[in-house]
Amino acid sequence: MVFEKYAFVKEKVERENIFRVYLDESLVWMVFVSDAFKKVVESNNLSGLKFIEVWDSES
């Protein structure tokens, strides 16, 4: 399954730092994190994560 654009209900996700979305029957999950989560990871020099912006709540 391929998505061209993600959109979320701001009121549902604005208090969440990490959440996942079940995509299909092949047990595929997409994990989404907040900017706050990303900043904590980067400020602690943690590795192994790749961040790709898929949604901007301010636009």
UniProtKB/TrEMBL annotation:
User: Domain Immunity MXAN-0049 protein spans what residues?
Assistant: 4-54
InterPro entries this protein is in? Imm11
**What protein name applies here?**
Immunity MXAN-0049 protein domain-containing protein
Organism per entry: Laceyella tengchongensis
